[in-house]
Design goal:
Helix content is 37%, strand content 23%. It has 7 helices and 11 strands. It is globular and about 50 Å long. The two termini are 31 Å apart. Bound molecules: cytidine-5'-triphosphate and magnesium ion. Cytidine-5'-triphosphate is lined by residues 8-15, 23, 51, 79-83, 86, 104-106, 213, 215.
């Protein structure tokens, strides 16, 4: 069984409002992307494909792959303007695989536990994402910001990454996307492509409330707290 991780780092990070794209910003001495790559480097995953902006390929090769000895990174490829285009660039770079794990480079606190849970499930169901139950009440509004409905909270989950699929399923979903009349700006995650193009059921397994994506400046402060906690636990266990 060959498992390949596609780690996405081709975004600009507009919501972070920083000069440097957020995946290269430092958290406790290392770039955010370092932590995301390290989680896969130290896991059962066989190979990693890193997707960055064209101009950042040389930087990533020198400052991440070589510097930290990430031996599982076999390719660094250029992403696209939209996230789904970056994912597709990663899929096209795969020669052969059984399973593909797609992960946000800006989601640095992925744990071994989560990877094992998702591995067990994707082998059964072929399409599986991680998520957590929402803690707040969610309301659906109209354009005048008037509440239209309040969905049953027990069925609402916040979806994270990794999003994992059988290789053939995800490849054929992305190939099919170009032929379908789907508004691509509405695609906000990878599972949506498999849902819409293949109508394949997507299983959700429990991620963690600390598996956050670094999106806005306050996430950096929250991220520092999480990383310190992880470092302390590692210290206790070593
Ligand atoms: N991503 C990507 N290619 C894109 C857009 C996003 O590879 N065209 C990656 C980002 O680098 C990030 C992950 O997808 O690791 C999640 O996306 P998001 O948090 O939205 O990052 P950005 O698009 O960079 O941020 P923003 O939406 O605030 O501009
Ligand atoms: Mg984005």
């Amino acid at each position: 069984m060959k498992t390949i991780a596609i780690v996405l780092a081709a975004g600009k990070g507009n919501r972070m409002k920083s000069d440097v794209p957020k995946q290269y910003m430092e958290l406790e001495g290392y770039p955010i992307l370092y932590y995301s790559l390290k989680a896969f480097e130290e896991s059962f995953v066989d190979e990693i494909i890193l997707v960055t902006r064209e101009n950042d390929i040389a930087y990533c090769d020198k400052e991440l792959v070589k510097r930290y000895g990430f031996n599982k990174i076999k390719k660094i490829v250029a992403g696209g303007k939209e996230r789904y285009q970056s994912v597709y660039a990663g899929i096209k770079a795969i020669e052969n695989a059984d399973f593909v794990y797609i992960h946000d480079g800006a989601r640095p606190f992925l744990t071994e536990d989560i990877l094992h849970r998702i591995q067990a499930e994707v082998e059964q169901s072929h399409a599986c994402v991680v998520g957590v139950p929402v803690k707040d009440t969610i309301k659906v509004l109209n354009h005048e910001r008037i509440v239209k409905s309040t969905p049953d909270r027990s069925l609402l989950w916040q979806i994270q990454t990794p999003q994992t699929f059988s290789y053939n399923l995800v490849k054929s979903a992305y190939e099919g996307l170009e032929r379908m009349k789907i508004k691509t700006q509405e695609i906000t995650d990878d599972a949506m492509v498999v849902e819409l193009v293949k109508c394949h059921p997507i299983k959700v397994v429990e991620g963690s409330y600390t598996n956050i994506k670094i999106t806005t400046p306050e996430d950096l402060r929250i991220g520092s707290v999480i990383i310190k906690q992880i470092m302390e636990q590692d210290h206790i266990h070593s």
